[in-house]
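Structure (tokenized):
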């Protein structure tokens, strides 16, 4: 026995052919929409997974080391352009060089900054510097005595409180012809390390003193 048209509860009567077609069409649309959403989520998850794998697979390595500064080469280049002899300290090879350049305003200077194991060493050559120039570079510290290092007589500055002298703990200066060479250290650098830098300058300073008019 053949069944009659299905009675729809909301309508209280059997669906018409048009209503049946509309219901099926809407059901198909909803199904296709849900499938599209699922596919989109699945594709997104796959893409994220691929990106994570690529990030993890690419070797990181380390940043290339910063090329070292060749103080002698820089000094030779600058010396030729300003027609003036520049000091080049003989210091341990393991001391890193952070700076080697011209500096200063009213008094031009050749400045080298070294980084030993701890702290720093600053070497300044003030061109035609006046008598007060060295003191001004180290927060106005005054000379407390002299000391011979490597055959050169150095002024030794009195620095009782490094915190008031720009964290400078030891400072020495010597005349080198018309110029003044200032060597000072800060941080954890002690007097022996500063004197080692001064000793590495002594031969060149002695020669500049002898050549001075």
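Design, position by position:
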């Amino acid at each position: 026995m053949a069944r009659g048209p299905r009675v729809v509860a909301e309508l209280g009567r059997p669906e018409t052919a048009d209503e049946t077609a509309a219901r099926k069409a809407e059901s198909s649309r909803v199904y296709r929409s849900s499938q599209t959403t699922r596919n989109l989520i699945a594709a997104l998850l796959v893409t994220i997974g691929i990106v994570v794998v690529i990030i993890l697979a690419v070797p990181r390595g380390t940043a290339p080391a910063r090329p070292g500064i060749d103080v002698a080469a820089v000094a030779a280049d600058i010396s030729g352009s300003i027609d003036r002899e520049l000091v080049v300290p003989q210091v341990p090879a393991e001391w890193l060089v952070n700076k080697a350049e011209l500096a200063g305003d009213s008094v031009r200077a050749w400045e080298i900054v070294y980084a030993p194991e701890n702290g720093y060493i600053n070497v300044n050559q003030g061109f035609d510097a006046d008598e007060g120039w060295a003191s001004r570079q180290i927060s106005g510290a005054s000379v407390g005595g002299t000391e011979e290092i490597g055959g050169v007589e150095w002024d030794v500055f009195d620095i009782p409180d490094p915190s008031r002298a720009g964290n400078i703990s030891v400072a020495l200066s010597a005349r080198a012809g018309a110029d003044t060479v200032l060597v000072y250290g800060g941080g954890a650098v002690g007097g022996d390390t500063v004197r080692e830098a001064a000793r590495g300058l002594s031969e060149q300073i002695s020669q500049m003193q002898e050549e001075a008019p």
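Reviewer-requested clarification: The longest strand covers residues 168-176. The longest helix spans residues 17-57.
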